[in-house]
Amino acid sequence: MRVDALSTDVLRLALPTPGMSDDRSMDDQLPPLTHINSLDELLDSRRAHARAAISGEEIRIARGVYVSSDAWGEIENHDRYLLRIRGVVNTRHSRPVVSHWSAAAIHGLPIGGNWLQDVHTTVSPTAGGRSHNGVVKHHAKLSEEDVVEIDGMLVTSVARTVVDIAMMGPFAAAVVVADRAQLVDRFGRTPPMTTREEIQNTFNRLMPVRAHKRAQGVIDFSVNRSESPLESESRVSMRIIGCPQPALQVPFWDYRGFIGESDFGWEEYNSVGEADGKQKYFEERFRRGRTSQQVIDDERIRHNRLAALPKHVIRWGWETGTVPARLRAHLVAAGLPMGVKWK
After folding, report:
1. Could you give the CA distance from residue 26 to residue 31 in angstroms, rounded to a whole number?
2. Could you count the other beta carbons within 10 Å of the beta carbon of residue 264?
3. How many Cα atoms occupy the beta-carbon half-sphere of 11 within 13 Å?
4. How many structural domains is the chain composed of?
5. Is residue 276 in a domain?
C-alpha cells in the first residue's frame, strides 16, 4: 500500500500541546513559518532569506523554510522541534508519515532532555530515497490502523509510535514512552492514550521484524501506573541493580484520612520511595491549580504524615534515579537489600 493513499482514510485528531489550549491547531500555537516556494520573486526571496539567516535575523529550520530569530528565541525546545517537523512536512511533494521520535513529540510523549534535530518519517519497504537534509527515512510496513492525521499531518498512531521506539530506542527511553502512553490518570480526567493490548496487537501485526525481542521486552516491562519519566527511569535502574521489586502508586491513610499515593512501596521493609522530578512542581497536571510553593508545602506535609505512620520515606531526583550505581548506593544506605531477580 502506498503511504500517501492513507490520507483519506486515517483518523483525524486534534493536537494536544502541553501548556496550550487543546482547541487550537499547531499552526495557531507556534510562530509562523516563511516558505520560500510560496513567495513571489522566488530568486530574490531566496537570497534575501539566506542573507537574513547568515546575519542572524532568521533561523533556517528546513530546506527553504525560515522563522524569525525573535520568535525562535521565545519558544521552548519542544516547540522548536515541532516547527522543524512542520517545516519538513510542508516541503514534501507528498505528505510523509511522521514517525518514531518525531511522532512522539507530536503526540506529547516524553522524548528526553536531548532534543532531536532530525525529523523521522516512515516509508514503505519498496520506496526509494535515503535519509538526508535532516530527514531520516525508516523503511517499514504501515497499515491504515497505524496512521492518524493531526493538524493536516500524517503521523503514526500512539501504539505504533511506542512499538517503533521500542524496536530502535534505548531500553530506558523506550520504557518512558511506553509507560506514558498507557498512563491511567488516577484523577479520572483523561483516558490513557493507548493500552497494552493495543500496543501488543500493533507489534504482532509487524512480525516478523528485527529487534523483536528488545521491543517485546519493553512492552512486557511497561506499566500504566508510572506518573513521570523519572519513575519509569527509576524502575529500569531498580531492575538493573536488583533491589526488591516495589509496588507502584501505593495508597496510605492515617487518622486524618487519605494521605496520598507513594511512587514506590516496599511493605516488607516498611519503606516508600518518592522520585521527585521537577515536573511535580511546575507542570499543571501535577500542580492542579496550585502554585509551585503550595506544591512544596503540600509535599512537606505529606512527607511528615507518611513518616508518622511510621514509614521510612526515601527520596531521590534525576541525578540518582537515572544512574543505577547511584540509586543502588542510595537504596542500600536506606536499608534495602540488593541482588533480587525481578519477575
Report:
1. 9
2. 22
3. 12
4. 1
5. yes
Rounded to 5 degrees, φ, ψ at 312 are -85, 110
100 domain-assigned: no
| Contacts of 210 by beta carbon, 8 Å cutoff, 6+ apart | 167
Largest CA distance in the chain: 76
The contacts of residue 226 (CB under 8 Å, 6+ apart) are 179, 180, 183, 232, 235, 248
Question: Does residue 244 have a cis bond before it (omega within 30 degrees)?
Answer: no
Secondary structure element (H or E) that encloses residue 48, with its range: helix 42-55
Say if residues 237 and 318 touch (Cβ distance below 8 Å).
no
Of 140, 141, 143, 137, which is closest to residue 120 (Cα–Cα)?
137
The verdict on residue 311 lying in a domain is yes
What is the residue whose three cell numbers read 483516558?
191
Query: Which is nearest to 121 in space by CA: 297, 144, 65, 94?
Result: 94
Identify the residue whose cell numbers are 526509494: 128
Q: What is the pTM of this model?
A: 0.83
pLDDT in tens, the chain (343 residues): 333 333 323 333 333 443 343 556 676 778 888 777 666 555 557 778 778 878 888 888 888 788 888 988 898 888 999 999 999 998 888 899 999 999 999 999 998 766 688 999 999 887 766 777 789 999 999 999 999 999 999 999 999 999 999 999 899 999 999 999 999 987 777 789 999 999 999 999 999 988 999 999 999 999 999 999 999 999 999 999 999 999 999 999 999 989 888 999 999 999 999 998 655 555 555 556 667 777 777 788 888 888 888 889 999 999 999 999 999 999 999 999 999 999 8
Report the candidate in 44, 43, 47, 49 with the shortest Cα–Cα distance to residue 65.
49
167 alpha-carbon distance from chain centroid = 16
For residue 131, being part of any structural domain is answered with: no
Tell me the C-alpha distance between 89 and 97, whole Å: 9
Query: What's the domain range around 293?
Result: 229-333
Enter the C-alpha cell of residue 100: 518514531
DSSP class per residue in 177-197: HHHHHH---TTSSS--S--HH
